[in-house]
Design a protein that fits this description.
The structure holds two protein chains of two kinds.
Chain A lengths: L4 E5 L5 H14 L4 H21 L3 E9 L3 E10 L7 H5 L9 H11 L2 E6 L5 E10 L2 H11 L1
Helix pairs in contact in A: 1-2, 2-4
Chain B lengths: L2 E6 L2 E6 L5 H17 L4 E5 L8 H16 L3 E5 L3 H8 L10 E2 L2 H11 L9
Helix pairs in contact in B: 1-2
The chains are: A alpha+beta, B alpha/beta.
């Protein structure tokens, strides 16, 4: 997909462009300012998770367009040691290392869909989506534009 | 440096101008803690109005600034948290009770006057 944006994450200074790209894409996808802030915050959390626990990885931002809704998918990928117990990592109040206990549950609350795929030695991929329902007016305008 | 620190009497006003890295934010904490002693500072205002994201790490760093400054003998007030940022911060199950926040600089200085027992020290 050519609208996809990739941001390499190597240290904490890379969180700044990751947040900015996320906000820009959210705005292009028609999200409100508040939703764009929630998305940028969630991106910051998963990107920081990479920096703190693995050191390097990448964030992929992908616009999703469906008939009745559009969205922004965020994929945070690393090749680190993986998470042995994903459920525990997502558990509220788990305080392993710096931030995991807050970061992932916080990001989950900020977004609509949230999945973590991980296995020991196989890295971790967090995939999350924020959706926006497209109302009749927007659909009508689009039909008119195409006509 | 993306933080401007101004001194006004025994208060410091730290304005965060742009998106900070984690290192810069912790650097600010250390710098403020140092200045409290060297410059005999009683109150600190941290202006975060330019930040369009405050994630859980940054929220904890702000809390850490408040706690560190307090242990050095100064009170801290946070100014200018954007409405969207406030909405996002609530999603993190963080205890933010230590963060005293107000809307603008005048209120911040008034609150510091109260906290440091200077109420009515000037003409107002």
């Amino acid at each position: 997909m050519n609208d996809e944006v990739r941001v390499p994450i190597n240290d904490d200074s890379d969180l700044v462009p990751a947040r900015a790209e996320g906000r820009a894409l959210a705005t292009r996808q028609g999200f409100s300012r508040t939703d764009a802030t929630l998305i940028a915050t969630a991106i910051s959390e998963v990107a920081r998770n990479i920096v703190v626990h693995v050191g390097r990885g990448e964030i992929v931002l992908r616009p999703l367009d469906e008939l009745r809704r559009c969205g922004l998918q965020v994929i945070a990928r690393d090749e680190g040691p993986g998470i042995r117990d994903v459920e525990a990592a997502l558990g509220e109040g788990s305080t392993t290392s710096r931030g995991l206990g807050l970061g992932l549950p916080g990001a989950r609350r900020l977004m609509d869909d949230f999945q973590v795929a991980s296995a020991p030695g196989r890295g971790t991929t967090v995939t999350m989506v924020k959706w926006r329902v497209r109302d009749e007016l927007e659909l009508m305008r689009e039909r008119r534009r195409r006509a | 440096m993306s933080v401007a620190i101004l001194r006004q009497g025994d208060y410091l006003i730290a304005s965060i101008r742009s998106d900070l890295t984690d290192g810069q934010l912790l650097g600010l904490r250390d710098d403020l803690a140092e200045r409290v002693g060297v410059q005999r500072i009683r109150g600190i205002v941290v202006d975060v109005g330019a930040l369009d994201v405050i994630d859980s790490f940054m929220a904890r760093a702000l809390r850490s600034i408040v706690q560190t400054a307090r242990l050095r003998g100064a009170e801290t007030v946070i100014v200018g948290i954007q409405p969207d940022v406030a909405i996002a911060m609530v999603q993190f199950d963080l205890n933010l009770e230590l963060l005293r926040a107000v809307l603008d600089l005048d209120e911040a200085v008034a609150l510091l006057d109260r906290l440091t027992g200077r109420e009515g020290r000037d003409e107002r």
